[in-house]
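User: Please go through the entry that follows and flag anything odd:
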Amino acid sequence: DVQLVESGGGSVQAGGSLRVSCSVSGGNISNYCMGWWRQALGEEREGVAQIVPGVNTLYADSVKGRFTGSRDNAKNTVYLQMNSLKPEDTAVYYCVVVVNGARGQGTQVTVS
């Protein structure tokens, strides 16, 4: 089974930056469309970025121009670089295998 482990979350002031990572085992990410979701407390889940093999990454309008999704196939790792963070970006961020919904435990990002 594919396993995903997110890391790199934390607390940051508005306007700051964070990079979250997702290490994948049990599958080769070069074969997968990978995504980043987030869920704020009391809110519905939101798709943030979708990293499609051989295609530009797709972004939610709420993060376009501020967030950058990328992958390192050699390391089997997916990244989400988050710049110009806002308080409304506060959420648990999940790495996802889009085709089957497999996801990690999430990492908390808090922007104050």
